[in-house]
Predict the 3D structure of the following.
Amino acid sequence: MSPGQLAFFRRRLLADEQALLSAVKETASHLQQSETSSDWNDRASAEEEHTLELRVRDRERKLLQKIRESLKRIDDGNYGWCEETGEPIGIARLLAPPRSARQSVATRHPAPRRRPQRSRRARSLTQAVALPALALAGSPPQLP
C-alpha cells in the first residue's frame, strides 16, 4: 500500500475515532441527566432507552478498540494485509465499514461447503422403502 493510501486511511480512522469518542461523551452526559418519574410506565420506558443506548455504546466501544488496533497496524506497516494469509486486502473492503478490516474477503467469508451426495444405491433404497409405505397408508384422511 502506498504512503498516500496509508495517510488517507489514517485520517479516516482518526475521524471515526473522534466521532465515537464524542458519542461516548454525549451518552455519559445524557445518562447523568436522567429524570426520575413517579409513573412506572415512564420509568420503564426510560430504563429501556438507557439499556438500548448502553448496548449501542458497547458496540461502539468494541469498534473503537478495532480502530485503535488498525492505527497500530498502520504504524507497524501491516495495515491492508490479511492476518491469516498475508495477501493484500482490497481497497473496497478497507473502505467498507468498519474500516478496520484484518482479513481478506476470501478468508473472512469462505465458500459454502457442499453437502455430500448420496450414492445412487442409497437413493434407490430410500425410494424403494418410501413407495410401499405410501401405498399401505392409502389416501390421506379428509377433514370435515
